[in-house]
Structures are given as structure tokens and as C-alpha cells.
Amino acid sequence: MSSVLAHIDGIGLFGPGLNGWKHARQILTGQLPLVVAPLQLPVADALPAAERRRAGLAVKLSMALGFEAIADAGADATKLASVFSSTGGDCDNCHNLLTTLASDDRAVSPTRFHNSVHNAPAGYWSIATACMAASTSLCAYDGTFAAALLEAATQVRASDQLCLMVAFDSAYPEPLYSFRPIPYPFGIAMVLSPHKTATTKVSLNIALTTADAMPIDQSELEKLRATIPTARALPLMQLIARAESGSVVIEYLNKPNLVIEVSA
Predict the structure, then answer these.
(1) What is the extent of the structural domain holding 39?
(2) Could you read off the pLDDT of 179-231 as tens digits, one per residue?
(3) Burial, 10: exposed, middle or buried (Cβ in 10 Å; 0-12, 13-18, 19+)?
(4) 215 is a domain residue
(5) Are 7 and 210 within 8 A, CB to CB?
(6) Is residue 205 part of a domain?
(7) Residues 22, 28, 29, 35: what is their CA dihedral angle, to the nearest 10 degrees?
(8) Is the CB of residue 250 less than 8 Å from the CB of residue 260?
(9) Per the domain annotation, does 133 fall within a domain?
(10) How many C-beta neighbours within 10 Å does residue 43 have?
(11) Residue 169 located in a structural domain
(12) Which of 46-60, 114-128, 148-162 has the highest mean pLDDT?
């Protein structure tokens, strides 16, 4: 594969003790320590009241990520193509559906059923923004973030248009947690552009590699990177937060991985 060039115009980031990109930057640059705490998200008030009541954590997290990245880029949410990626979607909803099916009363809630599809966050996004542009939903196990970034960057190059990328993970309750132990919800969003703009933060040159994925040099953040699929991107986010040029390798398909050259 030849390399793919894209530029980051806007960023959103939420996780345990990471309350938006502005706050996360201070942790990634070492100005503040990471204090793991429950996820804090803004109210998803762009959704109509009925949809807001039905939305689970996966939708609320993806909404917060997308809107933060859009605001950071000064982009028009109604016109952006999008890529949504998650290793498991709404894990709480999956747990509740399976619990119902394992019970004597197997009547599944229609709301839980329609929230179970993998493209539910993309659907809620289109409702919240009235966006009718194309949207892609995908998953790639531990390569969740890398798959989303590669797909969005490829779309940007092919269309010569901006693209919103949202990658997120939520956590399964037990007993599924024992089989897929993701400890915290976490997500990253980016607005990618085919050309440098006034809000461009860094440029990315993305290619496949057989090199090993890289850790991050902060122990508490490394724990997140090692256990949450989307957090595999933290070494990349650290370079961006520091406004440094350099190269990182992040996990994709366990060879090939992605090597990303960052130009600040």
C-alpha cells in the first residue's frame, strides 16, 4: 500500500479522567497527572428529547466526541461524510439483550433492539446534525482506531472533502467483561482534511508496516493504551498534543500495523 496523506483540523477526546481534548492535552504533555475517574460527558442536547432518552452510553460518547471535533475544526456538521468505528458498540445494551434472552420473559425491548445495530451511533449522529452525507460504520477488534483512521483518510483523498472520524469503545459488564476486559469507555474523534487549513494542527502520512506497535511513555496512560482498543492511538495523540513532528506505530491487524508520520 502507498501512503495516505491527511490533515487534522479538529479533535475530540473523552475517557476516564480525560474530559475533552483541551483537558487531555495537559495530561498528554505532562502538565497534569491522569487521575482515572468516571467518564464526564456533556449533555447530548443536539438530539431530540425522545432520542436522547433512548440513547445509551455509546451514542452519548460518540455525540460528545463528534461535536467537540467539529467545533474545534469550525466545520459544518451537516455536510461532512463520517466514519464511525467501535470494537463492540453499545456493550451495556448487548449485555441487557442477552440477559433478556436468557430469562423466562424473552420479549426484547424495541429500543434495545434498534440500539443493538453497529451503525446506531451513525444514525443518531445523522438525526442530531441533519447530515445526509455518506457514513461508514466498521469494527476491527483491537485495530478499531487504526481502521477508522485509515478509512477516513482514504475517503478524504478520494473525495477531496473533509471527513469526520469517530472511534470509541465502551465496557462490557460481567460475565462478558471476563472475555473482553475493556475497563473504561474511551473515544477519539478527528476532522480530517485533504488540504491544510487555518485550523490544521498536524499533517499525517499513513502507511502499513510490520513494525511493532509503540507504547506511550506515561505509565497511567500506557495502562489505558494496553487495555482499550481506541486508546491504542495515545502515542499519536501525545505527539499531536506536544505539537511535535515524529513517527509512531499503532496497532492495526497485528502485522500489518500502521506507521504514521506526523508533521507539526
Answers:
(1) 9-193
(2) 999 999 999 999 999 999 999 999 999 999 999 999 999 999 999 999 999 99
(3) buried
(4) no
(5) no
(6) no
(7) 90
(8) yes
(9) yes
(10) 10
(11) yes
(12) 148-162
Q: Residue 87: which CATH number? A: 3.40.47.10
CA distance 71 to 74: 5
| Distance from chain centroid for Cα 212 | 22
pLDDT for position 47: 81
How far is Cα 151 from Cα 163, in angstroms, rounded to an integer? 10
The rounded radius of gyration (Å) of the Cα atoms in the chain is: 18
SS3 assignment for the chain: CCCEEEEEEEEEEEECCEECHHHHHHHHCCCCCCCCCCCCCCCCCCCCHHHHHHCCHHHHHHHHHHHHHHHHHCCCHHHCEEEEEECCCCHHHHHHHHHHHCCCCCCCCHHHHHCCCCCHHHHHHHHHHCCCCCEEEECCHHHHHHHHHHHHHHHHHHHCCCEEEEEEECCCCCCHHHHCCCCCCEEEEEEEECCCCCCCCEEEEEEEECCCCCCCCCHHHHHHHHHCHHHHHHHHHHHHHCCCCEEEEECCCCCCEEEEEEEC
Q: Considering its fold, how many domains does the chain have in total?
A: 1
The single residue listed with the C-alpha cell 432520542 is: 51
Cell numbers at 119, concatenated? 451503525
Place of cell 507539526: 264
Beta-bridge mates of residue 167 = 85, 188
Which residue, among 151, 166, 146, has the nearest Cα to 70 in the 3D structure? 166
Please work out, in degrees rounded to the nearest 5, the angle formed at the alpha carbon of residue 8 by the alpha carbons of 151 and 154.
Answer: 20
State the sign of the Cα–Cα–Cα–Cα dihedral 119, 167, 157, 21.
positive
Q: Which three cell numbers stand for residue 96?
A: 441487557
> Cell 480530517 sits at which residue?
192
Tell me which residue has cell 447530515. 131
